[in-house]
């Protein structure tokens, strides 16, 4: 399978996952395709390090989208959401029982290649991208009134069933 066909397949699957939380923020019209591209690019970076690919998870995508929208609404980067909710609270709201979770945020990058490069060039974000424990991922993107794109990535591993 070529990279182009893999990207198209991933984008199509992501469109099916967009039935998540409806938000009142300016989201890119091609959000499903962006999410698919981000997953492909993330997994390409992980592959160069011999790490397993992440799977797209709608709950993580919803948590990431909520954060991207909150940042776009406030026009500032943050790991805190409404009522100062952190990542753990957002994941509990999305009913993702996590054993571990990490979040990357970014602003101003115009495309998926730029944000992935930005995260990989940042030591802290790179650690999150290449987390050996992560199994799933979700992404969010929103456009602020300032015209800048706000990005969020959540990677996590589910807690073992009890």
Could you please describe the fold and organization of this structure?
The chain has a single domain, classed as Pathogenesis-related Protein p14a. Mean pLDDT is 84; it is low at 3-22. Helix 1 packs across helix 2, helix 3 packs across helix 4 (87-93) and helix 5 crosses helix 6. A four-stranded mixed sheet has the order 1-3-4-2, with helices on both faces. It has six helices and four strands. The protein is α+β, with helices and mostly antiparallel strands. Keywords: Signal. Residues 41-153 form the SCP domain. This is CAP domain-containing protein. It comes from Pararhodobacter marinus.
Sum this structure up briefly.
The chain has a single domain (about 30-155), classed as 3-Layer(aba) Sandwich (Pathogenesis-related Protein p14a).
For the report, how would you describe the main beta sheet?
4 strands, mixed
Secondary-structure element string: HHEHHEHHEE
CATH topology: Pathogenesis-related Protein p14a
**Binned strand content:** 15-25%
Distance between the termini: 38 Å
Highest-level CATH class: Alpha Beta
| Rg (C-alpha, Å) | 14 Å
Assign the structural class, choosing from mainly alpha, mainly beta, alpha/beta, alpha+beta, or little secondary structure: alpha+beta
Counting DSSP E segments of at least 2 residues, the number of strands comes to 4
Domain SCP: 41-153
Pfam families: CAP (PF00188)
Protein name: CAP domain-containing protein
InterPro entries: CAP_dom, CAP_sf
């Amino acid at each position: 399978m070529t990279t182009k066909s893999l990207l198209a397949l991933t984008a199509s699957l992501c469109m099916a996952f967009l039935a998540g939380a409806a938000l009142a923020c300016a989201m890119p019209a091609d959000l499903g395709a962006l999410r698919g591209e981000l997953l492909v690019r993330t997994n390409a970076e992980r592959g160069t390090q011999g790490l397993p690919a992440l799977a797209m998870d709608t709950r993580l995508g919803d948590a990431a989208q909520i954060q991207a929208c909150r940042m776009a609404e406030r026009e500032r980067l943050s790991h805190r959401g409404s009522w100062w909710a952190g990542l753990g609270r957002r994941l509990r709201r999305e009913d993702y029982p996590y054993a571990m979770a990490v979040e990357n945020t970014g602003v101003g990058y115009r495309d998926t290649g730029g944000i992935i490069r930005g995260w990989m060039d940042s030591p802290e974000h790179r650690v999150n991208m290449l987390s050996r424990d992560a199994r799933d991922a979700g992404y969010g993107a929103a456009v602020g009134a300032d015209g800048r794109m706000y990005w969020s990535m959540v990677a996590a591993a589910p807690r073992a069933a009890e």
